[in-house]
Fold these 2 entries.
Entry 1:
Amino acid sequence: MLRPEEMTRSVVVGSIDSLSVTIECLYELGVLHLIDFTAQDQDFRIGQPLPQASDASQKLLKLRSMIRSLDIEKHKPADKMPVKDIKRRLEQALVTLDQNVSSKSEARQKIQTLIREKEADIRALEPIASFGIPVENYEGFDNITSFVGVCKRDPTAAIASKIPESETLIAAGKSDAIVAVFVRNEDRAEAVRILSEHEFQEIKLPKLKGDPSALLDRLRAEIKGLEADLARTVKDIEAIRKKFADFIVSSEEDLSIEVLKAETPLRIATTANSFVIDGWIPTARVQEIQTALDTLCCGLAFVETIPPEKDDEPPVELKNPRPVKPFEFFMNLVSTPKYDEIDPTLILFITFPLFFGFMVGDLGFGVGLALLGALIRWKFKAYPDAVKLGSIIVAGGVIASVFGLIVFAEAFGIPFHPPEESPDEYSWASVVDIPIHPMLEKMYDIKEMLAISFVAGWIHLSLGFAFGFINHVHHSKKHAIAKVAWFVLLLGLFEEMMFFVGDATATSGFVNSTVFAIFPDAAFSFSGIGVSISAVVLMVVGVALLPLTEGPLVLTEVIGVFTNLISYARLAALAIGKGGMAFAFNTMLLPTVFESGNILISALALVGLVVSQLFFVFFLGSLSAGIQAIRLNYVEFFIKFFEGGGTDFSPLKYERKYSVAKE
Amino acid sequence: MDIGTGLALVGAGIAVGVAGLGTGLAQGQVGAAAVGATAEDPKMFGKGLILMVLPETIVIFGFVVAILLWIS
C-alpha cells in the first residue's frame, strides 16, 4: 500500500554449462526483471543464443506461415496440449503438414488466379460476341488500324462523314455503345480524335483465336471445372484445418516460448566459462530463487544481491490489497509511479467512490450502476481492464446507493418524502412509506453541499501536499519545504473561507469549532469582509516561504491553490445539477403519467420519463460524475506530488494458454 | 420579487451561461487535440483527459458566482 513492491538489485552468476538450466529456472519462477547487457568489453561479451534457437526459429517460421495459410490466427484450442505430445509429434507433423498445407494453399491460389484470368477474358469477349468476327481478326494488319471498345455515344455517323474509307461495327451495350472501328493507318489520328470526342474506352482483347461465342462457351465450361477443383482444394484445406488447428496453435505457442528462452542469452553478459544475469528481484523472493537454483543447478549458479547504485531506477510493481487492485486501472491510464514515489492507488480507492457516490447520490441509480458494473465484470471477464472498470463501477454504485439511502433519501430522482420547502412535490411517500428522512436536501441545502465539497477539497489537497513532502524529503529538502509552504497557504486560505461563512452551515460550524478552534479569533474587517488574522498570518507565511524554496516565479502559481480549492465545488454542482435534471423531468412528466386520465397518454409519458431519466440522468449523469471524480484526483490531487514515468516490472516469464508443460 | 433580485438572478444566469461558453470553446480545441494524440498513442489518454478537463474550472467559477448571487 502506498509503496510499490520492494526490489533488490541482484546478479545471477554461474558456469556457462548451467546457463540453459538457469534460464529455464528463471522463466519458471517469473521473478527476475532483466537489465539488458549492452556494454561489451574484452572480458564480457553478449551471450550466444542457446543451440536449439535456430532450429526452433525455423520451425516456428513454418508454423506461422501455416497459421496464415490456414487462416487460423484467431483460433483458440479448446484444450491445453501437453508439451510432451507436441514435442513427440512435431517433427513428423511438420514435414507432412508443411508439404500438404503449402501445396494445397499454392494450388488454391493458382486456381483462383486462373479463374480470375478467365473471368477477365469473358468480360472482354462478351461485348464483341455479337459482331461474329473471330478474335484474331481484330488485330495484326499491315495497313489497317482497329479500335475496339465502348463509346458513350454512337460515333458511326461522325466516322462515316470524316473517314469515308472505314468500317464501323456497333452494338448496344448496357448504357453505352460497343464499337469496332477499322480505318487505314493514315486515318488513325483522325479516328482517335473522333473516338475521344465520343468518350471512347478501349477493350483489351485476349490473345485467343476463334469465334467469340464459341470461346465464351469454352471459357465458361473451364471456369466451372476450375471451381469444382477449387471447392475440392478448399475442402481439403478445411479438413487439415479441422484436424490440425489445435495442434498447430499449441505448438506455435510452445515454440515461441522455446525461442524466447533460447534467445535470452542475447540479453546477458557471458565470458568464456561463465555468465552474469543482472536484474531486479522483489526482495521478498530472493531466497526463493536461490533455493530453486541450488536444487536445479547443483551449485553451478547462484544469486548475489548487490547494493543499488545512486541513479538506479528499480522497476515498479504496484503492491495493493485485493479490493484496491482494480483502481490500478486509473494509474495505468496516467503513468506508472516511480519506484521511490508514493503510489496513490489507495487514495483513489477511497476518494473516487466517495466523490462519485456524493455526485450521483441516488439509491435507484446507485443500485443500477452496481448491477451494471457487475454485468461488465461478468460479460467481459476475459479482459482484465474491463473487469477492473466493472469493479470500480460497482464500488461507485454501492457508495452512491448508500448516499442516496442515508444522506439524500431519494431513488430515481424522486425523494422518499416531499421536501419541507415544496410539500406538493411527487415523492415515494404516495407509494410506500420509507422511514428515512434526508440529512441533506440536494436542491435546497446548497450552502451545506458547497461547504462539504470544500472540506473534501481541503482534505484531499492537504493529503496531496503531504505526499509531495514525503516524496521529496529524501532527495530535495528544498522542495519538501515548499510542500509545507503550500500546505500552510492552503490552510490559511481554507480558514479564511470558513471564517467568512462562519456558522452559516452545519459543516462550516463544525469545522470552525474543531479544526480552527485552536486558532485565535482575532479578526478585522476589510471593505466589509471579515478577515481572520490567523488566516492572514498562515497565508503570509506560506507565500513568504515559497520564493525561498522554489524561486520567485512560483508566486504566479499562488492563485492556483485558490482555483484548486474552488474546483471541488464541482462535487456540489454535479449533485445539484443531477438532482435538478431529475426533478425537472419528474415535474414535467409525472403529473401527465398519473393525472392525464387517458391510458395512452399516461403510457407515453411514462416511456418518456423512463427514457429521459435513463439517458440524461443515469448514463450522462454517471459518466460526468465518473469523469469529474477522477479529474479531481488526476488534476487537483496528483499535480501536488505525482511525477510518474516509472518502469513497469516485467520479469522473465511466459504464459501458456494452449499448452501445458507438465501433465 | 423586486427588480434588484431579478437582476441578480439574471446575473447568475449570465455567469453560468457565459462561463459555460468559455469552457466549451476551450474544451473543444483541447479535446480535438487530445483525441488526435490518443489515436496516435493510446498511452496519451490519461494526459489527454487531464488537459481536456482543465478548462472545466472556468464553468465552476461561473457556478460559484451564480450560487453566491442566488443565495445572497
Entry 2:
Amino acid sequence: MSKELIEKAKDGNIQALNELIDNHKELAYSIALKHLKNKNDAEDVVQNSFIIVLKSIKKFRNESKFSTWLYRIIYHECLKELKSRNTIIEYIPQFIEAENEETYIEEEINIQSLLKTLKPNEYSVITLFYLEEKSIEEIAKITSLSKVNIKVLLHRARHKMKQFDKDKSP
Amino acid sequence: MKEETIKDILSKDLKKISKEDFNEKIIQQLNLSRKKEKLILYDQSSIIKIFLIISLFILVINLKIIEELQQTSIIIGLLICISPLFFMVFNKIYQFTIQNSQSNENFI
C-alpha cells in the first residue's frame, strides 16, 4: 500500500479513505465472521475498527505497516466482543452457509467444508500469511501471540489443507 | 499443496459485506468527529494551566523579590486567575454559533 494513499487519507480525502477501506474490508470481515459466527456482529466490529483506526490515522507514523495496525485492532475488537458476550459460542454453520446461497458448485462447497475445519485463530493466521503476505513477526504483533504459537497455528492450518487435498484426490 | 493453491482457496472464500453503505457510514462518522474537534476554540485545560503558572509566578515575585503584597498586584493576580473564565465563555459562544449554523443547514 502506498504511503501516498495514507497521506491522502490523513488529509481527509474521501476517495483515499474509500480505497483504504475497500482494500481491507473483505479479509477483515472474513476474519471477524470466523471469530464471531454472526454476520451483523462481524460487520459492526469491522466498521467500528475502521472508525477507530481512521480517526487516529493522523498519529500514524509509518513505523509499521498500516494493514498490520488495522488487523491488530480488528483482531482485538473481535476478542473484546467475544469477551463481552461472556459465553463460549458453539460453531453455528448456518451463518456461514446463509452467506453463500448462490454457490452450489461442488468445488466451492468442498472449499467451504475445508475452511470450516479451520479454527478462528488458524484461519486468521493463514489468511494474514498468504493473502496479506504478513511475516510471522507481523502476525505475532497483530494477534499478540508468540512467534512459536503462530508457527504452530500456521503448520496446523497448512496440514489441514494438505489433508483435505489428499482426501479429495483419488 | 502449492502456495498458489492455498492463496486461491483463501481468496475465493473471502466473504463480502452485505451493507451497501458500509464505507459511507465510516466516512460519515469520521466527518462528525472532525466537526466536533473544531467546536473547541481554545483548549480549556491548557489555558487554565498557563494562567495558574503565570499567577503563581507573579505571587512568587511579589513575595520573594518585592517582599510585600501590594493591592494592585493582588488585583492583577486575581484578574489573571479569572481570565481563563473569559476564554471559556468565548468557547461557549463559539460552540453555540457553530451549532446554530449547523442546525440551520440541516433545517434547509
